[in-house]
Design goal:
The protein is built from 1 helix and 2 strands, in the order E-H-E. By secondary structure, the protein is α+β, with helices and mostly antiparallel strands.
Length: 82
């Protein structure tokens, strides 16, 4: 008999693959195809946000004139005590 929580199709018990998680995207750089986006894009970031660099990089990668980068002055992540 299998131990508690162990199942033949369990990802933790076998070499199975979960098709509902984004594991396949882990090794793909997020901005690889950003230059192919043709829809309007609005990127909003707090001026002091730790991830602001990513939004700025995405903005640079986007093509065309239908894009806008909005920085909110003084805004920072909710968990930041600054």
């Amino acid at each position: 008999m299998a131990e508690r929580g162990d199942h033949l199709r369990s990802l933790n018990s076998t070499n199975g693959w979960d098709v509902t998680t984004p594991l396949s995207f882990i090794h793909m750089p997020q901005l690889t195809y950003a230059g192919e986006i043709r829809n309007a894009v609005l990127i909003v970031h707090g001026e002091k946000a730790h991830s602001r660099y990513f939004g700025e990089d995405a903005y640079k990668t986007l093509q065309g004139e239908n894009k806008e980068l909005m920085r909110l002055p003084g805004a920072s992540p909710a968990f930041n005590s600054v």
